[in-house]
Design brief:
Belongs to the cysteine synthase/cystathionine beta-synthase family. The chain is α/β, with parallel strands linked by helices and about 325 residues long. It is about 35% helix and about 15% strand. The chain folds into two domains: about 5-35 and about 160-325, 3-Layer(aba) Sandwich (Rossmann fold), CATH 3.40.50; about 65-140, Rossmann fold, CATH 3.40.50.1100. The protein contains ten helices and ten strands. Helix 1 (about 45-60) packs across helix 2, helix 1 (about 45-60) crosses helix 5 and helix 5 (about 150-170) crosses helix 6. The protein is globular. The structure holds 4'-deoxy-4'-aminopyridoxal-5'-phosphate (PMP).
């Protein structure tokens, strides 16, 4: 029988598929690892499971414990999913700019939500970071996963994502490309692929223009629209020694590729996925990668979380991306 005993068993082992259209003019094979096949819909299911396993083993998380984390997105879904299966409460703090639909998703999984003012900076006691810290310390049984510092984030990708890519490509992968948020994905997966290939696999980071990882100086760090990637500080989960190169992408090019992946490749994915593919193509072009190269790009989540933004033509036009709408939408036929 192939009936899974519970949803956690379905985390990982996501498929790889070759890109056939957006890669026009590129000789190398570009394959994407589609993480929306995870039960919670993103790569973050992997870290949630490992962080909770490790906290149970260390005793930081006891039966009936409460998981508290400042997160509005994929990490919250992953944690809520694993937590409900094991009888833990989850409390997520999030700034009031987070859309109602994202709040609804977390509540649907059984999480409790504390909404904080967006204009409260990280040092403000009302900020979602500080409220989470306070709740984790004062609630009996409180446990704070802290995905930016927790070594189990990268460890989960070292143990699962890396080996899956090596096996699925029969060890023929030559390049691995992933966006950098906490840095867990690229550091863990990249470390495994380098070790198993005797350093032959090149690891390429993808970063939004304005983020610290690809900014020439702190003066170049600024806001951007791509979600889930980039930072304005260096988290412990990111191991800078693993990446061979970082290719930055601006919001426009990331969103154009995100829309093209949906309309040309049938891949409805998020903006950080479009960004990663844009980086991979740019890297392949710059370095003249040939037919012998196999580039694997990780696509972290589904486009369903971005229907109100990247896939909403009005939002796109209002934010200066009107040309992308024109380039990727067929006219509606009104009878
Ligand atoms: N894309 C999305 C949509 C994400 O939520 C994240 C996680 N913040 C990433 C990419 C980057 O992954 P990581 O934190 O492992 O660097």
């Amino acid at each position: 029988m192939t009936i899974a005993n519970n949803l956690s068993e379905l985390i990982g082992n996501t498929p790889l598929v070759k890109l056939n259209h957006v890669t026009e003019g590129i000789k190398a094979t570009i394959a994407v690892k589609v993480e929306y096949f995870n039960p919670g819909g993103s790569s973050k299911d992997r870290i949630a499971e490992r962080i909770i396993d490790a906290a149970e083993r260390s005793g930081e998380l006891q039966p009936g414990g409460v998981i508290v984390e400042p997160t509005s997105g994929n990490t919250g879904v992953g944690l809520a999913l694993v937590a409900q299966q094991r009888g833990y409460r989850t409390i997520f703090t999030l700034p009031d700019k987070v859309s109602e639909s994202k709040r609804a998703v977390l509540r649907a999984y059984g999480a409790e939500i504390v909404v904080t003012p967006t204009d409260a900076g990280p040092d403000d006691p009302r900020s979602y970071y500080q409220v989470a810290e306070r709740l984790a310390k004062t609630i009996p049984g409180g446990f704070r996963p802290n995905q930016y510092d927790n070594p189990n984030g990268p460890a989960s990708h070292y143990a699962t994502t890396g080996p899956e890519i090596w096996k699925a490509t029969d060890g023929k992968v030559t390049h691995f490309v992933a966006g950098i948020g906490t840095g867990g994905t690229i550091s863990g997966t990249g470390r495994y692929l380098k070790e198993v290939s005797d350093g032959k696999v090149k690891v390429i980071g993808s970063d939004p223009e304005g983020s610290i990882y690809s900014a020439p100086s702190m003066a170049d760090v600024h806001q951007y629209d791509i979600e889930g990637v980039g930072e304005d500080f260096y988290p412990k989960a990111f191991d800078r020694t693993i990446t061979d190169d970082i290719v930055k992408v601006n919001d426009h090019d990331a969103f154009l590729m995100t829309r093209r992946l949906a309309s040309e490749e049938g891949l409805l994915v998020g903006g950080s996925s479009g960004m990663a593919v844009a980086s991979a193509i740019e890297y392949a072009r710059r370095n003249n990668l040939d037919e012998n190269q196999l580039v694997v790009v990780l696509l972290p989540d589904s486009g369903r979380s971005y229907l109100e933004k990247i896939f909403n033509d009005d939002w796109m036009r209002a934010h200066g991306y009107g040309d992308i709408v024109e380039a990727t939408t067929r006219p509606s036929l009104v009878a």
